[in-house]
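Hi W.,

Here's what went into the run:
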Amino acid sequence: MNVPFYGHVRQYHNIQDEIDPNIQEVLESGQYVMGPMLKRFEREFAAYHGMQYAVGVGNGTDALWLAFQALGIGPGDECITTTNTFFATAEAIWIAGATAVFVDSDPRTNCIDPSKIEAAITPKTKALVPVHLYGQCADMKAIRKIADRHNLLVIEDDAQGIGARGDGFRIGELSDAVCTSFIIQKNLGCFGDGGAVVTNHEKVDRIVRKLRNHGSDKRSCHSAGYNSRLDDIHAAVLSAKLKHIDEWNALRRKWAARYSAGLRDAGSFTLPYETPGYYHVYHLYVIEMKNAEHRDPLLNFLNENGIDAKCHYPIAIHQQEGYPWGKDARIAGNVPNSERNAASCISLPMFPELTEDEVDQVIAKVLEWNRNAGVA
Ligand SMILES: *Cc1c(COP(=O)(O)O)cnc(C)c1O
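Here's what came out:
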């Protein structure tokens, strides 16, 4: 039995009778860019977060750097983040003209380690950019305290954590802006690229709205801006899917629990860690080999046996040859946890539309490799 990594088409078929009429509505309206469907989805998406404003943009990377720009983050400013994340987190800092400073991640959650942040703060530090990696919230309470102590902005990279919660806090509650991606493989995915900035600051909403549309908030009047809009067809898909996101996240948690029960006794790797009281939404289910040299053999074995396992992310950002370092981007101290994570991570298939048989097949193959390798 082959087990795919994603279930995009399964998901489409499951709710085709909700998506198709929404798309049809856009097609018939003739309003495909900045039309009523986009406005509707923006309202729904802000409400989902319990926040006041949501602005649809072209993708998650733009969401990040447009939010940075709206918050006045630019050349000469430093943003503290992590190096074991998708490249776009740092790329957005670079696009905004600011400088990325990487601190190490927590060895269990792989999110930014708050205890490492203060040592990295300089007079140039302007913002903290935590990533809710793999679908689990970073420790926002600790991050907020540090931000308050040093008068810093906080921008959440929530491309992977839609619907996640912390211990007594929601996403968006402890920050200045939440930046999301709707590329198809994310927990809430449109049929292409998309993103959003969610905020309670009227000013951030107003500026991002203007920047995304050629610096225009009034017909024919422009200031320097960009073109980064969320198309109405994507908004139509997202509006239909948003009604299901909590149910889909619950399914992801169900499959994660099944993996963790089935793999509990396998000694060659550690299972994903759930911070007590947090609601992890398992954008990815990532195991970490105790011996990094076992990573590629297990990954290859799974792939050869029809199981589409992957790695997120095998090369940390500071290890990327092509990282546009600029003159100042740097690692603060060293980042052994992030480097260990990059060298030893494997992502098992994870999407709501998995079946019990598929999950059990993945478990069986992982255990088979363990036995063959003598590391069970
Ligand atoms: C996907 C992702 C992004 C970027 O989103 P795009 O829509 O691809 O631009 C940013 N940060 C993280 C952590 C992501 O996973």
